[in-house]
Write a structure and sequence with these properties.
Distance between the termini: 22 Å
Strand content: 25-35%
Mean pLDDT: 86
CATH architecture of the largest domain: 3-Layer(aba) Sandwich
Structural class: alpha/beta
Helix content: 25-40%
Strand order of the largest sheet: 3-2-1-4-5-6
Low-confidence stretches: none
CATH class of the largest domain: Alpha Beta
Oligomer: single chain
Shape: globular
Length: 457
C-alpha cells in the first residue's frame, strides 16, 4: 500500500515505523529536515521536506497514485486542508486527519465530501480519555480494551501473591468459575511472552491478558488478584483538553478535583464543569496536596503535556498517600522505565492513537487494532467475510486454522453473543474474531487469513 504521512512527530514517526516494517511504500512529509533525516536513517522510507498542505509538496510525495493520506501534523487546519487538496487534485481514496479542536469535532457536517473530505477523524484527546475512563471503571486493570462495541473486553492484570489462581494451572480457571467462560490470551513473565496452555502455571507478578464478555470481567479479575475497591475520590493534575474531557465524563459518578496552574483556564473549567472542584495551583505543591487530603484520593491522574511535571507530581502524590497513580507520558522511551514502581500505570497517548490509526490502514477486514504492552504485542478484531470456498477461516474449527506463530484466537462475537474460543469452535460468516499476536511481524499473515478470495465476488 502506498501511504503518505504528513507530520514526523511522535505519532507520525511511530506510525511510519509500524508500517515500514510491514512492506508498505511510505513517504513522510514534514517541515523539519532534522526529524526527517533521523527517520530516514532508521527506516526504509522516503522523506519530503515541505508544508504538507501544498499541492506541489503532495505531488512530490507521490500523491498522484497514493492509496492513503494520513495527516497528523500539529496543526488541525493543515491536516484538514491537506485532505481537501488530496481529494480535489489527486482523488486520494482514503484520507485520515488528526483533529484536536473540540469545536471542529462537534460539527459532523464539516467532514463530508461536499465540505472537508476527511474519511476518518482521529481525536487523540478523545482516544486517551476513553482509555483512562475504562481503567477507572476496572480498578486493578493495567489495560482494558473494548471489542465489538464493548460486548467483549480484553483486560490485562498483574497476578498477585494470594490470588486464587496463582500457583495453579490455567485449566483450573474453569473449575473455579464453572458458570463463566473466559480465555487467557497471553501471559508476559519478566517481559517475555508465554503462549498459555492448559497446564501453564500462573506465577505472581505475571501480566495476564484475558478476554471475556463485559459482564464477566470483574469475576475473572478476582481470580487473578485481590479485587481493588471501586474508586470514589479522583484528583486530576492538569485541566487541559484531556483533563477537562475526563472530568466531564466521570464527574456524575465520582468525586473529582482538578488542579490547574492557569487562572483563566481555571475560570473556564469552573464555568463548564458541573460538580468538579477546580483548584488553582501546581500539582507538585506539597502543601496544596496535603491541604486537599491527597492521602484520601483513590486515584491521582497526571494529565499535563509535560512528562517531567507529570512524573514528579505523581511520585509526590504517591509518597503522600494517594492509593493509585496514573501518568500520561508523551515520550515512549520513558514508559517502560517508570511503570510498575511508584507509578502504577503509564499511559502513552501516541500508542493509544497509533492503534486507532492502524485499524484504518490494515488490509483485509480488520475492524480494530490495539497496541498492547507499550507496542510489544497487538490485539486485532477482524470480520470473517465470504463463504467456505472463498475464505480461509469460515466453516473451519479453530484447531484446523493455520494461525501464524505466536497467534491465538481469544473470542468470537456472533451477533449479540460472545463465544470464548475453544479448539472445536467453528467460525461462521459475519463473525467478529478477536486475535492476539505476541509477534507483530506476523500481522500481514493474519490479514491474509481474512482476505476473501475472488471466487466470492
Amino acid at each position: 500500500m502506498k501511504i503518505i504521512i504528513l507530520g514526523a512527530g511522535q505519532v507520525g514517526g511511530s506510525l511510519a515505523e509500524h508500517l515500514a516494517s510491514e512492506a508498505n511504500d511510505i513517504t513522510v512529509v514534514d517541515t523539519d529536515g532534522e526529524r526527517l533525516r533521523d527517520l530516514g536513517d532508521r527506516l526504509d522510507i522516503r522523506t519530503v521536506q515541505g508544508r504538507g498542505s501544498l499541492p506541489t509538496v503532495l505531488r512530490q510525495a507521490g500523491a498522484d497514485d497514493a492509496d492513503m493520506l494520513v495527516a497528523v501534523t500539529n496543526s488541525d487546519e493543515t491536516n484538514m486542508v491537506a485532505c481537501q487538496v488530496a481529494h480535489t487534485l489527486f482523488h486520494t481514496p482514503t484520507k485520515i486527519a488528526r483533529v484536536r479542536e473540540a469545536s471542529y469535532l462537534t460539527r459532523a457536517e464539516l467532514f463530508d465530501n461536499d465540505a472537508i473530505p476527511v474519511d476518518v477523524l482521529i481525536s487523540p484527546e478523545q482516544v486517551v480519555t476513553n482509555y483512562i475512563k475504562r481503567l477507572i471503571q476496572h480498578p486493578g486493570a493495567l489495560q482494558v480494551i473494548d471489542f465489538a462495541e464493548g460486548k467483549a473486553q480484553l483486560v490485562a492484570v498483574k497476578a498477585y501473591y494470594g490470588g486464587p489462581l496463582v500457583g495453579q494451572q490455567l485449566r483450573q480457571l474453569r473449575e473455579h468459575m464453572p458458570n463463566v467462560d473466559t480465555r487467557v490470551a497471553a501471559i508476559f513473565r519478566r517481559d517475555r511472552p508465554i503462549l498459555p496452555q492448559g497446564n501453564t502455571v500462573i506465577e505472581a507478578d505475571d501480566e495476564v491478558f484475558f478476554i471475556a464478555a463485559r459482564a464477566n470481567i470483574r469475576a475473572v479479575m478476582s481470580e487473578m488478584r485481590r479485587l481493588d475497591e471501586s474508586y470514589k475520590r479522583i484528583v486530576i493534575a492538569g485541566g487541559g483538553q484531556i483533563g477537562e474531557r475526563l472530568a466531564e465524563a466521570i464527574e456524575s459518578r465520582y468525586q473529582v478535583k482538578i488542579i490547574e496552574m492557569n487562572p483563566a483556564r481555571c475560570r473556564y473549567l469552573s464555568d463548564t464543569l458541573d460538580s468538579t472542584v477546580v483548584l488553582q495551583g501546581s500539582a507538585s505543591d506539597r502543601d496544596l496536596l496535603l491541604e486537599e487530603n491527597i492521602a484520601d484520593a483513590d486515584i491521582f491522574l497526571a494529565l499535563t503535556n509535560d512528562d517531567e511535571a507529570n512524573i514528579m507530581s505523581s511520585l509526590l502524590a504517591k509518597r503522600l498517600g494517594a492509593k493509585k497513580v496514573m501518568t500520561i507520558i508523551n515520550n515512549p522511551a520513558y514508559v517502560d522505565l517508570i511503570q510498575g514502581g511508584d507509578i502504577d500505570i503509564a499511559i502513552s497517548p501516541q500508542l493509544a492513537t497509533i492503534g486507532t490509526l492502524l485499524a484504518h490502514v490494515r488490509r483485509g477486514d480488520i475492524v480494530s487494532v490495539h497496541s498492547l504492552r507499550r507496542g510489544a504485542a497487538e490485539a486485532i478484531e477482524a470480520i470473517a467475510h465470504g463463504d467456505e470456498k472463498s475464505s480461509k477461516v469460515i466453516g473451519k474449527a479453530i484447531e484446523n486454522i493455520a494461525l501464524p506463530p505466536g497467534t491465538t484466537i481469544g473470542a468470537i462475537i456472533r451477533d449479540e453473543e460472545v463465544l470464548i474460543a475453544h479448539d472445536d469452535t467453528v467460525i461462521e460468516a459475519g463473525d467478529h474474531v478477536i486475535l492476539f499476536l505476541v509477534d507483530k511481524k506476523h500481522i500481514r499473515d493474519v490479514e491474509k487469513l481474512f482476505h476473501v478470495g475472488l471466487s466470492f465476488f
